[in-house]
């Protein structure tokens, strides 16, 4: 690390593996080094770069008007893949401050970058090691091949492809500016606070039951109808134990037609790992469905009832029972979930 520190202190740019993607770092108060990063990435100059710091105390010095929930965010997820965007204090490196007076700050995890931060004791400009707008690079060889000789030194290693989650903390509620490794539900459950989503972001909602022919497709299509004017909510449904391609029972088609919904073209689909990964929120009909979500992703899962009640499977139980289940699903969507979805957006 002595060689890396020497390069940074001389105004150089270093590529280094982080807990998210390969990153470029430089001293945040060195204009020449910061300009070099913009050139290497071909990044527009009006897009400010965030900074790495060594401690929460260091981060708070760079921010002003920090709300309590922002402190809790830092304490909960740092070191880690969360970038906090707040109003910059007079102590913030001006090269990292946006025209709106904001700065992004993060404490990354990882042995190498932590050691550098502890020894250099100054904010480091940080950004993904890639051409702006292109996929992130994952190895030192990829960085050398794509970014060429503009970088002064490459620390060898490898990383994943998910960037940090970026959360703005300038209002009464946190607002997610970029989705990343830390999900919406993990933030909300750990902080007991609802987050908003920035303009341009979507909310992906996945409904889960057993066969994906009755309850979950009813919830999916009723949700579509209730939020028809909000284009930023993406609904889907899956089954934990189904044969793909099955149509809904006649009773489901009938009870949804009674409320103006045509579901005849629905075909059942099996719950796959990529569905779980892609969802922001997984709404299950029964406790057993929650338990069938792999543990690392279970923080995304909730019951439709919002409490402890399971929504029973109506299969084979007569039209009146299908109507009862439809009405329960409609009740919970209208009274719990649709208002929750819409609170995520300022423009729905």
TrEMBL record:
The record's Pfam families line, in alphabetical order, gives:
LMWPc (PF01451), Sua5_yciO_yrdC (PF01300)
Question: Any idea which residues are catalytic in this one?
Answer: 209 (nucleophile), 215, 313 (proton donor)
What's its EC? 2.7.7.87
Q: Where in the cell is it found?
A: Cytoplasm
GO biological process assignments: regulation of translational fidelity; tRNA processing
Principal subcellular localisation of the protein: cytoplasm
GO cellular component, as recorded? cytoplasm
User: Mind telling me which SMART domains this protein's record contains?
Assistant: LMWPc
Identify the PROSITE patterns for this entry: YRDC (PS51163)
What keyword terms does UniProt attach to this protein?
ATP-binding, Cytoplasm, Hydrolase, Nucleotide-binding, Nucleotidyltransferase, Transferase, tRNA processing
Write down the InterPro entries for this protein, in alphabetical order.
DHBP_synth_RibB-like_a/b_dom (IPR017945), Ptyr_pPase (IPR023485), Ptyr_pPase_sf (IPR036196), Sua5-like_dom (IPR006070), TC-AMP_synthase_SUA5 (IPR050156), Tyr_phospatase_low_mol_wt (IPR017867)
- Which residues does the UniProt record annotate as the domain YrdC-like? 1-182
What family classification does the UniProt entry report for this protein? Belongs to the SUA5 family. Belongs to the low molecular weight phosphotyrosine protein phosphatase family.
Name listed for the protein in its UniProt record:
L-threonylcarbamoyladenylate synthase
Q: What is the lineage of its organism?
A: Bacteria, Bacteria division WOR-3
